[in-house]
Specification:
2 domains; Arc Repressor Mutant, subunit A; single chain; 76% helix; 0% strand; DNA binding; DNA-binding; HTH_TetR; mainly alpha
Length: 186
């Protein structure tokens, strides 16, 4: 990908994020995206089919970038390290994550997909030992609970420190995993 192409995609991404602050994706037209980005529609269509295609591209980029960022983290023996790194990553790009985790209300699947990816990474690194048959339920519980906590944290303006929140999420998840282990023994 050449520099012009990268710049065009960056401008469109920024345009989309800006517009998503004010409206749902279904209300955003290609014309509006192009006007906000300062590019013409034919250039848009060289890269994307429609606004949803652009949104999907942005979402996948966020997942890939977050995953690559977390790949560089040495977890040692605690998932708290990953959670803390993820929370710090969110704070570094507050505008993007606020829009994508809070205001993209038509697309409720993206935040869950992102957190599930993080949870799977933690599971691969730390081997949480969740019985295979219970994994979908456990992941669903941990993803939804963690997402709600992170969304609250963003809405409240990051009142808790990243460390405090990472400890809280890890503690709640750890207690849940202990309960699952005990359930499995019955």
């Amino acid at each position: 990908m050449n520099q012009r192409e990268r710049l065009t995609k960056l401008l469109l991404k920024q345009s989309l994020i800006s517009l998503l602050k004010e409206k749902n994706i279904s209300q955003i037209s290609v014309k509006e995206l192009c006007t906000t980005a300062g590019i013409n529609r034919s250039t848009f269509y060289l890269h994307f089919a429609n606004a949803y295609d652009l949104l999907e591209n942005v979402e996948q980029e966020i997942i890939n970038n977050t995953s690559a960022y977390l790949d560089k983290i040495e977890a040692v023996d605690s998932g708290t390290t990953y959670i803390l790194a993820f929370l710090e990553y969110i704070k570094k790009d507050e505008e993007l994550f606020t829009v994508m985790l809070l205001t993209s209300n038509e697309n409720v699947l993206f935040p869950k997909r992102l957190l599930k990816e993080i949870l799977q990474k933690i599971d691969r690194e730390l081997q949480l030992n969740v019985p295979e048959r219970l994994k979908p339920y456990t992941y669903s519980y941990l993803v939804n609970g963690s997402l709600a906590i992170i969304q609250e944290w963003i809405q409240e303006g990051f009142i808790l420190s990243s460390n405090e929140l990472a400890e809280l999420i890890f503690s709640l998840a750890d207690q849940s995993l202990v309960a699952i282990t005990q359930l499995e023994k019955k």
